[in-house]
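re: ur question from yesterday

yeah so i grabbed the chain u mentioned. its 284 aa long if i counted rite. heres the sequnce exactly as i have it in my notes:
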Amino acid sequence: MPDLLVVGHVSKDLHEGGTYSLGGTATYAGLLGARLDLRTAIVTSYGPDLDALPALDGISIASKTSPTSTTFRNLYSGAVRTQIISGVAAPLTIVDVTIVDVPEEWRESRVVLLGPVAGEITNDLFHAFGTSLLGVTPQGMMRAWNEAGEVHAVPWEPDENLLRQVDVLVLSEDDLSTHDALERYIRTVHIVALTHEARGATVYIDGKPRTFPAYACAPVEPTGAGDTFAAAFLVELEATNDIERAAYFANSAASLVIEGAGTSTVPTRAQIEQRVGTRQFLTQ
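ran it thru and got these structure tokens back, copy pasting raw so excuse formatting
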């Protein structure tokens, strides 16, 4: 049984010159779990165009067969990201016809993170993990794209019953289409963590906000910060039952992952703890 299970597509992130790196919430959250020496598993889907296994060494993987992989090109202007999507892998569910996407023995994982990147998560997954601490990063449910693959934001408006299954919701202020959406989330979900990039994060506990500052760092690339924050927050919350501790731990982890390209700086526990101990925060 895993300590951390992440459900979502690993993505093929294209670069100039035809090269690519592995991305997606499943990648960053899964690698963080492995770096924290947790038993980590991923349920995902990708095609023969992507060689994911070498980069995910040490992680148990259940991958659904797909003719193609979810493929993005991320273009940055400062911290502003424009995305182009050119492929989407197979959707993820509990049972698809006779195919079991999530192994039964993984459904009692200590922590589960549903991390869609392209709308691939079906609603039955929200009800599949009875005893787990269930976290969701809904960014992938807030994406749509036109015929050219240009990604734009759309509202995520799940019904109340589905939202009540979620223990922790983690999203960026850039994901929100309206303030009303945030109000609905914090009214229904026990813990909502809203990240603000260089301004840290606000954690709402039963609707009451607490703000936690970002750590001083030397950013290189912002990709993966939110995914790393989410995984770090969940695993530390499950381990300590201390929301303040989890928030500082998550902000530290996010500040470290952006100090390198791609997944090269996904941190270890020692690195996260060392930065937490510095108490050196960005001032705004």
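noticed a couple things. The chain has a mean pLDDT of 94. also The helical segments are 25-35, 160-163, 179-188, 225-240, 243-257, 269-278.
anyway ttyl
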